[in-house]
């Protein structure tokens, strides 16, 4: 069962410039695992060293945030569209140790 | 890579930073990118979701809510972002990057900025001193996520 994963512009350099990728998957977790095994350089931008989705990476299934569904266990169906959207966040360091 | 602004767009960004002082402001930069440079054709000021600590904490928790607020943190609402991205795609524009302000702090990225960044995007930072926008710089995350590299920010 193929779902479409939309690749945001900054990550297309790791997917051979593809703006979307079709992946066979039953859950969001399977889709992201399939995506990052196909395109290994994507992994560090989506997952942290412990293999968990980075806290600022949001995943949507047809505009629904998986955080409010069943997270990585959220089921996906044929023709669903998965979007990866970073939370854009920042601010100065509390102790002002700037890099 | 360099990022190029028209003077009036950069002025809009500076005015937003001054208006929201002493809070951090944030927004999205839209336009076109080729291999050599990014041409900003539109800036979209957005609300800093840290003004709504409950919802912000639900989306991207901070470690110490008593010390991390809209004064030293910003967060763009992912729903705003999805909306702007879709709308810009339909109009043939790309999201080139984002801007935010550092009230009473230098226009340099913090570790917190780096931890929450993706490569390729331009992260424009403004220092604001006593409600006046001062320095404006632009930064791109290295591919290995280890550091930010400054890029040229030019007027066209």
What is the radius of gyration of chain B computed over CA atoms, rounded to a whole number of angstroms?
Answer: 15 Å
The count of domains of chain A is 1
Q: From the helix content, strand content and strand pairing of chain B, which structural class follows?
A: alpha/beta
- How do the SSEs of chain A run, as a string of H and E? EEHHEEEE
Structural category of chain A is: alpha+beta
Shape of chain A: globular
Which word captures the global form of chain B?
globular
Share of β-strand residues of chain B: 35-45%
Biggest pleated-sheet summary of chain A: 5 strands, mixed
Strand order of the largest sheet of chain A: 2-1-5-3-4
Could you walk me through the main structural features you see in this protein, from its secondary elements to its overall organization?
Chain A has 99 residues and is of the alpha+beta class. Chain A has a single domain (2-86), classed as Roll (Ubiquitin-like (UB roll)), CATH 3.10.20. Chain A is 15% helix and 25% strand. Chain A has a 5-stranded mixed β-sheet with strand order 2-1-5-3-4, covered by helices on one side. In chain A, strand 3 (57-61) and strand 4 (64-65) form a beta hairpin. The longest helix of chain A has 11 residues, at 28-38. The radius of gyration of chain A is 14 Å and the shape is globular. The model of chain A is unreliable at 95-99 (pLDDT under 50). With 156 residues, chain B is an alpha/beta fold. Chain B is built from 4 helices and 8 strands. Chain B has helices at 7-20, 53-59, 78-90, 111-115, and strands at 2-5, 26-33, 37-46, 74-75, 94-103, 122-129, 132-141, 148-155. Chain B has a 7-stranded mixed β-barrel with strand order 1-3-2-5-6-7-8. The mean pLDDT of chain B is 94. Chains A and B meet through strand 5 and strand 6 of A and strand 2, strand 4, helix 3, strand 5 and helix 4 of B.
């Amino acid at each position: 069962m193929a779902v479409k994963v939309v690749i945001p512009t900054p990550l297309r350099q790791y997917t051979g410039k593809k703006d979307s990728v079709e992946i066979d998957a039953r859950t969001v977790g399977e889709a992201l695992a399939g995506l990052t095994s196909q395109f290994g350089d994507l992994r560090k931008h989506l997952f942290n060293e412990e293999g968990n989705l980075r806290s600022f990476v949001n995943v949507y299934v047809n505009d629904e945030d998986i955080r409010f569904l069943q997270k990585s266990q959220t089921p996906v169906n044929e023709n669903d569209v998965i979007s990866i959207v970073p939370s854009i966040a920042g601010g100065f360091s509390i102790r002002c140790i700037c890099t | 890579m360099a990022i190029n602004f028209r003077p009036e767009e950069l002025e809009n960004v500076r005015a937003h930073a001054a208006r929201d002082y002493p809070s951090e402001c944030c927004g999205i930069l839209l336009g076109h990118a080729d291999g050599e440079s990014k041409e900003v054709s539109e800036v979209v000021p957005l609300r800093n979701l840290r003004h709504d600590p409950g919802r912000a904490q639900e989306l991207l928790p901070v470690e110490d809510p008593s010390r991390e607020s809209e004064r030293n943190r910003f967060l763009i609402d992912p729903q705003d972002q999805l909306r702007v991205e879709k709308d810009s795609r339909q109009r043939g524009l790309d999201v080139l990057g984002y801007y935010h302000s550092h009230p009473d702090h230098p226009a340099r990225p913090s570790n917190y900025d780096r931890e929450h960044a993706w490569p390729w995007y331009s992260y424009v930072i403004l220092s604001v001193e006593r409600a006046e926008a001062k320095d404006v710089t632009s930064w791109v995350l290295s591919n290995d996520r280890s550091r930010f590299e400054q890029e040229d920010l030019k007027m066209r």
